[in-house]
């Protein structure tokens, strides 16, 4: 049995809270959100492309083969008085084979479009900033979930330790009851009761190992490790000291308004919707562009591509277009943009209210857990004293196995409650920090 335990320990992988934080910021949900940020970045580059000159180069080479054609042809004639003229008459045209080669370059530059291009570029920039905020929000959410799963694993491990300690105490009680029975100071029923209690405690410890295994898989999958990896949560530094005090509500709300990535993302989305209105209104304005074309065209390859002094055609000028009436499409686009702006404003306002509510909710939860932890520690001390007293009474023959068992159960419950409350304090603190926007989330790659 000891060899199996040693093998399991050697095969396990210790992991710290900081490692979990870092790995959680790089897990699959966060990477998917970062891809959305990269898409928004490229969309910004696409929007900016309209301000640059547009250069197009093309080339053609074709051959036309025409057979004999029946068509109206122009026939010259001479009158009796010597005058000449032409007349259209049906006739046959001979077929022909003809080559045509051409190369062309077209350059255009948008000069004015009612401000749409600048507003589209600014809108794309705002959406990129919003994507950054959403990515940071996802990172903080992923990091908190990793922290929660880490503490769930650590709690399962500590619970197993408590249950193992309970098994040891129950085994010691069996030894005491057997010794007193052999000395004729207690009945056989005390020994049997102690053995039953020991069996039940062993069952509880065995069942707890499955909870540890489940918690290991939950954490491993979240940090993008194999779900079969045997992770062991290392005791965090925060648990080695007492629970710190919670911040003041006013300070926590102010911090959340200033730093929460979600609110920053929604602010940029609202800014993008404002610019969207300007983009839509640009449809009422004309568009002015400068254009230049260079064309070389001829019937044979050598003339077009070898002799630069021939077959040249250049044209340039300005092109003005104004969609005076678009069938109310521009008006509809402006109204849609206005509705989108109102939607963005409402989303930001509602999110602000919800963030403030979350701050208050999680702050009160943290305060309650800190107070509960203080009570749990005092209760744990009392439970230990009670067990010591019950064991001394049992040794002296003044107590019973039932009394000792009751004290053991109370101590086990007090230990589990103290551990759970202390870990819940750190989980609640991590959740509050997430809501306040205190998770930095690392740099954008």
State the gist of this model.
It is built from 10 helices and 8 strands. With 445 residues, the chain is α+β, with helices and mostly antiparallel strands. Strand 3 and strand 4 (84-93) form a beta hairpin.
Number of helices: 10
Instruction: Quote the distance from N terminus to C terminus.
Output: 49 Å
Taken from the alpha-carbon principal axes, the silhouette is elongated
* Mean pLDDT, all residues: 86
What's the arrangement of strands in the largest beta sheet? 2-5-7-8
- CATH topology name: Outer membrane efflux proteins (OEP)
Helix and strand composition category: alpha+beta
How many domains? The number is: 1
- Specify Rg, calculated over alpha carbons: 41 Å
- Please give the CATH architecture: Up-down Bundle
| Number of E-state strands | 8
- Poorly predicted runs are 1-10
Looking at CATH, the homologous superfamily is: Outer membrane efflux proteins (OEP)
**How much helicity do the residues have?**
55-70%
Instruction: Spell the H/E element sequence.
Output: HEHHEEEEHHEHHEHEHH
Specify the biggest β-sheet.
Answer: 4 strands, antiparallel
Strand content: 15-25%
Q: Which CATH first-tier class would you pick?
A: Mainly Alpha
